[in-house]
Amino acid sequence: MKKKFFNAKIYRNEAATEMIVENGKITHIGTNLPKCDEEIDLNGKLVLPPYVDPHLHLDYVYTLSELGQEGAGSGTLFEAIELWPQFKKTLTVESVKRLAMKGIQDEVSQGVQHIRTHIDVTDPNFTALKAMLEMKEDLKDKVDIQIVAFPQEGMYMYKGGLELVEEALKMGADVVGGIPHYEPAREFGEKSVHDIVKLALKYDKMIDVHCDETDDPHSRFVELLNGLVYMEDYGSRTTASHTCSFGSADDSYAFRMLDIFQKTKMNFIACPTENAYLQGRQDTYPKRRGLTRVKEFIEYGINVAFAQDSINDPWYPMGNGNMMNILDNGIHLAQIMSSEDVKTNFDLITYNGAQCLNIQGSYGLDVGKAANFIVLNESTVYEAIRKRVDVLASVRNGEFLFRKKEEAFDVALSL
Ligand SMILES: [Zn+2]
Questions:
Q1: Residue 297 in 3-state DSSP?
Q2: Does 289 share its domain with 391?
Q3: Residue 72: is its pLDDT beyond 70?
Q4: Is the domain of 317 the same as that of 209?
Q5: Residues 324, 350: one domain?
Q6: Percent of the chain's residues with pLDDT above 70
Q7: What CATH number has the domain bearing residue 312?
Q8: Is the distance from CB of 42 to CB of 7 less than 8 angstroms?
Q9: What's the CA gap between 49 and 371, in Å, rounded?
Q10: How many angstroms separate the CA atoms of 177 and 119, rounded?
Q11: 369 and 323 in one domain?
Q12: What keywords appear on the UniProt entry (predicted)?
């Protein structure tokens, strides 16, 4: 059956207002397209490809509430890392699935259809990884999930950490993770970066490293990661997440690195709400923003995306899976609101995330691709961002995952 979605404003395609979908795929995009069996009026609203959340910890979501807390502790990254192992001991496949499902619902009900999740594999039972591998398969018609084998407790903080990451890749994780700034000495951090790249090449996996998530301007593992993947021509399959320290780095160093990042084509992910909350904790005043150099990445044509990172976990209590909120915070912290910036701001939670996930070939609103898109409650990009509008509908393979009405008042304001 052919289906036509009409009266739409299509992001990055101003000339088109209609799409025809057949067998779940977009067959036409344009105007005045032929009549179809079913015609769906999108009421002049903005249509985007689905939101992408390229960095989320689905084995941590809602664990803060499970711990009986309604707020965080002192709020430092390292305190949260220390708290986690106590909770980890209590996990079962069922408990991980139950909480992860709440996080997935939060995201998918607000327009996300692609999630990259870091799963802690520093657990010899791989409880969370087993749960997530099953969920990835079970939910694939609703949401695409990529799994990062993430050594939360480090590769070299104890014996056998590296082997756990390798085993997780054999079990089916899609991406090699790491956390070099958490390793006990710089040399171990560097060793872990070498091992991450070796594992990725050995198992033909992507790379996504928690890299320099600290205000210490001397934490420069991103430099080594970038150098190694440059040598292997592996930049486009590699992502450096966080790189907060790069926001504190000396300018002469930073601009030298920006030139090299540009050549390597490595991807970057910033988590604006999470790192605005976690970083700058040892600063008195002025306090740093915790954000990497997002504005400069954009100016240099280096791919950078925004991500949620945490929902209700010991690292960050307030996440709710709303990517508009992430975008809103990110464009404030990165100071990207010029009329030129606004035109492409949505890329930070759509196309740029898709590029980090290496799905850009199948992602986007083009003929021949899956009919996956969301409908926002505004008709222009600027108004949608300024009003932080909701997602009214999410369509996957041509079918509504959900569709809701615009809000209606019992008593309307009259001025
Ligand atoms: Zn993270």
A1: helix
A2: no
A3: no
A4: yes
A5: yes
A6: 98
A7: 3.20.20.140
A8: yes
A9: 9
A10: 9
A11: no
A12: Hydrolase, Metal-binding
CB neighbour class for 141 (10 Å; exposed up to 12, middle 13-18, buried from 19): exposed
Q: How far is residue 269's CA from residue 27's CA, in Å, rounded to a whole number?
A: 33
- For residue 245, the one-letter residue type is S
Cα-to-centroid distance, 210 and ligand 1 (Å): 6
Residues 82 and 64 in one domain: yes
Residue 415 within a domain: no
How confident is the model over 252-265, as pLDDT tens digits? 999 999 999 999 99
Q: Are residues 29 and 76 in the same domain?
A: no
DSSP string for 17-52: -EEEEETTEEEEEESSPPP-SEEEEEEEEEEEPPEE
- Domain assignment of residue 412, yes or no: no
CATH (domain of 12): 2.30.40.10
Give 337's pLDDT tier (boundaries 50, 70, 90).
very high
- Report d(CA 146, CA 354) in Å as an integer: 11
pLDDT digits (tens, 9 = 90+) for 184-212: 999 999 999 999 999 999 999 999 999 99
**How far away, in angstroms, is 24 Cα from ligand 1 center?**
33
pLDDT tens digits, one per residue of 231-248: 999 999 999 999 999 999
Domain range enclosing 135: 51-356
**118 alpha carbon to ligand 1 midpoint, in Å?**
7
User: Which residues lie below 8 Å from residue 31, measured CB to CB, with a gap of 6+?
Assistant: 15, 16, 17, 18
Q: Which residues are 145's β-sheet partners?
A: 115
Q: How far is the CA of 271 from the centre of ligand 1 (A)?
A: 8
- Residues annotated catalytic, as ranges: 213
Q: Is there a single domain that holds both residue 176 and residue 277?
A: yes
- Total domain count, the chain: 2
Residue at 125 is within a domain: yes
> Could you tell me the pLDDT band of residue 6, with boundaries at 50, 70 and 90?
very high
**Is 142:101 a contact under the CB 8 Å cutoff?**
no
Instruction: Please state whether beta strands 391-396 and 399-403 pair in parallel, antiparallel, or not at all (unpaired).
Output: antiparallel
The helix/strand/coil state of 357 is coil
Which helix (DSSP H) or strand (DSSP E) does residue 173 occupy?
A: none
Phi and psi (nearest 5°) for 168?
-60, -35
pLDDT tens readout for residues 305-316: 999 999 999 889
- My answer on whether 35 and 115 are in the same domain is no
**77 in a domain, yes or no?**
yes
Burial 333-343 (b: 16+ CB within 10 A, else e): bbebeeeeebe
